[in-house]
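Hi again,

Forgot to attach this to my earlier email, sorry! This is the prediction with P1T bound. I've pasted everything inline since the attachment limit keeps bouncing my files.
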Amino acid sequence: MKFETKTIHAGQKPDPSTGAIMPPIFQTSTYVQEEPGKHKGYEYSRTANPTRTMLQDNLAALENGKYALAFSSGCGAMTTVMHLFKNGDHIVCCDDVYGGTYRLFTKVLVNNGIKCTFTDLTKTENLKKNICSNTKAVWIESPTNPLLKLIDIEAIASICKSKNIICIVDNTFMSPYFQNPLNLGADIVLHSTTKYLNGHSDVVGGATITNNFDIHEKLRFLENAMGTVPGPFDAWLILRGIKTLALRMKAHEANALKIATYLSDHPGIEKVIYPGLKSHPQHLLAKKQCSGFGGMVSIVVKGGLPNAKKLLKKTHLFSLAESLGGVESLIEHPASMTHAAIEKGTREKLGIVDGLVRLSVGIEHIDDLISDLKQALE
Ligand code: P1T
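Structure tokens for the complex follow:
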């Protein structure tokens, strides 16, 4: 099946009892058993739920993976994955990641004795330099949030394989439409399904996909044990959103490229970061490992914080809000919003400066989006 067909059909069949074309929302906590242990595959909805199963089967198909799990949020998925590791283990993580990921590693997991080294993994040799005898996993985002740096997934995964380290890729920004890390050798793909997969800013969710049965079974055990599960209605909303993923991603990308090009020539903008621009330092890598460049654009506004604030205040169609990947355009200020959990010094060293503004480009008409930015930058 081609990608577009999978988004609509994978994991789902018309309901056998009624013929309903849409998957039912199995809004139930428990299931009747004929005798203890004799049931139709479902006992209790923390362990498994049919609507969630359909979403999981769909997600596995989209990422070309064998096994998927849906979670209560992207952070729920991350927390569960990180419970694969124990006191004394070491993780290497790319230095530019979602602020919540940084917070989980530096403020929560550290209390469980898990150490994390953050390093610039756009340079693959930095991974080799930071692997220790207790390194158990590498965590990457590509493109990273919010600086849209590209990391060579195939190269990182190959080092991981040679050292028996688990390679985890957060694929939230590209979505499975533009990038499939398992095909590049990753062991676990993670998503905040809150974003492009759902696409309508009306649910919070997460997912993991893997081809490794052992890892999947461990994660399934942990999810049930820790209760990081989504409700059936949330699972259904994500399944519904996914049906238009291919159409939406094409539209996000077309608009993002036009906006990045427009802003590149704007006198009020110091720098535009978009993997689809030839000026992006890893444009060629983006072309190699992704089938598109996504819908996220980051910019540095000339004049720093005061002018960034002015822009954030003056847009009308770009709403000032955290999150991304919905049909509507959003604008945000990483330093004070999504990445506020990172200490100022570290943030600035990375390039998350006060003038940095992140755009999640929606699928509205491009003329309206450009007019909105134009008037806001006047
Ligand atoms: O918000 P949640 O569903 O828990 O997902 C966390 C998460 C994980 N990975 C990436 C790459 C993310 O961007 C996020 C959440 N990010 C935002 C809310 C944001 O505005 O960047």
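The radius of gyration is 21 Å. The mean pLDDT is 98.

That should be everything now.

G.
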